[in-house]
């Protein structure tokens, strides 16, 4: 029998049942940095200076201790130092702006008083990973690789990934103002760590940029360029402006997206006079030519959206960019609940005018299993966030499937829940498959974290991990 609305209300004794998510408008907050002993005397003027922020980034445990002092006890610092030595795939680099958003709601009341809050903090969990966060069993998935999306294999020229038919990714530089522990480009981005020797570009930057522009001029089928890195906020402004201005002169380029997590991590950069004036020049040309110039940023937690972040986004709108969009990464312990995701999306949208756009599943890089979710968990989250945000601002949760590209999590073709293997198909050839007749017939695999599988599935991986990897490698050999 179908339950009517009246039946439902009667069953609840006339009381309205709570919605799974309850929307409240939260004003944005800039936490007071002076609560940390190392910044007790830092003025507003210093805080708003991009130069001050860059020169006071935390790059090692001693510097972190210099800021937090004994508010966090040695257990945490030791845990962090162990991670740096034994597991971290990214070197430590945290802007004061980002560090200041950690544990901001907890009262600092003496030695050790922020330790638990630091351990639990969503931003800390991905910017300052500690060794005890990582899984001891299946720390990495057997299929995890350094360049898990095979971007280098798809370089048309050095640093230009041509994966989709009409769009490309230009990796301008291998650095960022901040380094995220889960970075998918851990192969290339940032300084080498004790466990990862980073790849280096071999061609000089100006030559590379020229080669990228030449490729785009010679390939009129490409209409959309993601100008990324790294983070474009680390390119000297005249270089970035010259490159984007040259893109704007190529007739076939209709969309340009500048990728910068720094809009959130170092908003002070985007508020500098020369950057604002330069963006205005580029946006004016883009508008005249009918090209969509947008900024894509990367925010993973609502607490990161502060008034100065909103100010930077507004500055970009004032400069004339078409949109500022967010591409977050879905991570356990950071944002893997309906509440966390919706709080973040509403903070972005209501507080800063930033469009929630995508949440990527965390990629299959080494030592990331504690962050990664299973596809079924991502599907449940996508279901859970539907219907609260305006349709145009409801983000899609996507899985970046190796050799395929982004797929909405509900597009899975087949799902072996016991072994946690999803199979995906695609409807275009990547840049390395132009002569591959079977590329559109084949299925491509993605793997759930093993610790989320039933015992029988975990046992299967214990027995078959090596064979599964060997089989995948052999299949790639045949098709390459
Ligand atoms: S900002 Fe982006 S490219 Fe830079 S470390 Fe973070 S995820 Fe990687």
What is the CATH topology of the largest domain? TIM Barrel
Bound compounds: iron/sulfur cluster
Count the DSSP helices. Answer: 17
Uncertain regions spanning at least 5 consecutive residues: none
The portion of residues assigned to helices is: 25-40%
Task: Write down the domain tally.
Answer: 2
Q: What order do the SSEs take from the amino end to the carboxyl end, as H and E?
A: HHHHHHHHEEEHEHEHHHEHEHEHEEEEEH
Beta-strand percent range: 5-15%
CATH superfamily of the largest domain: Aldolase class I
Structure in words:
The model has no long low-confidence stretch (mean pLDDT 95). It contains 17 helices and 13 strands. The chain is α/β, with parallel strands linked by helices. It is 35% helix and 13% strand. The chain folds into two domains: 33-133, no CATH class; 152-390, Aldolase class I (TIM Barrel, Alpha-Beta Barrel). The strands form two sheets. The chain has a ten-stranded mixed sheet. It has a three-stranded antiparallel sheet with strand order 11-12-13, with no helix packed on it. It binds iron/sulfur cluster.
């Amino acid at each position: 029998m179908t339950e009517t609305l009246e039946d439902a209300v009667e069953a609840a004794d006339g009381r309205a049942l709570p919605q799974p998510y309850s929307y409240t408008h939260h004003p944005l907050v800039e936490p007071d940095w002076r609560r940390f002993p190392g910044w007790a005397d830092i003025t507003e003027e210093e805080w708003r200076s991009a130069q001050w922020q860059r020169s006071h980034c935390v790059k090692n445990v001693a510097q972190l201790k210099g800021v937090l002092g004994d508010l966090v006890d040695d257990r945490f610092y030791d845990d962090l130092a162990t991670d740096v030595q034994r597991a971290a795939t990214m070197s430590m680099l945290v802007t004061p702006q980002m560090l200041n958003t950690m544990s901001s709601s907890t009262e600092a009341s003496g030695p050790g008083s922020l330790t638990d809050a630091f351990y639990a903090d969503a931003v800390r969990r991905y910017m300052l990973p500690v060794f005890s966060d990582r899984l001891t069993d299946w720390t990495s998935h057997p299929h995890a690789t350094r360049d898990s999306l095979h971007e280098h294999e798809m370089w048309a020229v050095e640093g230009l990934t041509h994966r989709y038919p009409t769009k490309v990714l230009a990796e301008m530089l291998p650095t960022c103002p901040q380094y995220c522990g889960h970075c998918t480009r851990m192969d290339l981005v940032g300084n080498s760590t004790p466990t990862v020797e980073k790849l280096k570009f071999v061609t000089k930057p100006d030559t590379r940029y020229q080669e990228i522009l030449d490729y785009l001029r010679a390939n009129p089928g490409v209409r959309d360029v993601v100008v990324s890195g790294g983070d474009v906020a680390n390119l000297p402004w005249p270089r970035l402006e010259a490159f984007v201005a040259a893109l704007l002169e190529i007739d076939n380029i209709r969309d340009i997206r500048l990728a910068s997590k720094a809009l959130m991590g170092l908003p002070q950069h985007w508020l500098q006079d020369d950057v604002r004036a330069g963006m205005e020049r580029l946006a004016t040309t883009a508008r005249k030519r009918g090209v969509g110039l947008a900024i894509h940023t990367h925010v993973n937690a609502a607490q990161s959206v502060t008034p100065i972040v909103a100010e930077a986004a507004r500055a970009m709108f004032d400069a004339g960019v078409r949109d500022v969009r967010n591409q977050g990464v879905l991570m356990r312990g950071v944002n893997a609940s309906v509440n966390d995701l919706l709080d973040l999306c509403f903070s972005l949208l209501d507080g800063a005018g930033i469009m929630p756009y995508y949440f990527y599943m965390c990629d299959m890089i080494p030592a990331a299993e504690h962050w990664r979710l299973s596809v079924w968990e991502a599907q449940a989250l996508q279901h859970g966030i539907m219907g609260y945000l305006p349709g145009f601002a409801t983000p899609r949760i996507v899985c970046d499937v190796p050799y395929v590209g982004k797929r909405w999590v509900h597009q899975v073709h087949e799902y072996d829940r016991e072994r946690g293997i999803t199979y995906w198909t695609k409807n275009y050839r990547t840049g390395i498959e132009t002569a591959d007749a079977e590329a559109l017939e084949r299925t491509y695999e993605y793997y759930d974290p093993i610790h989320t599988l039933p015992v029988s599935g975990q046992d299967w991986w214990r027995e078959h991990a090596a064979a599964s990897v060997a089989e995948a490698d052999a299949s790639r050999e045949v098709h390459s």
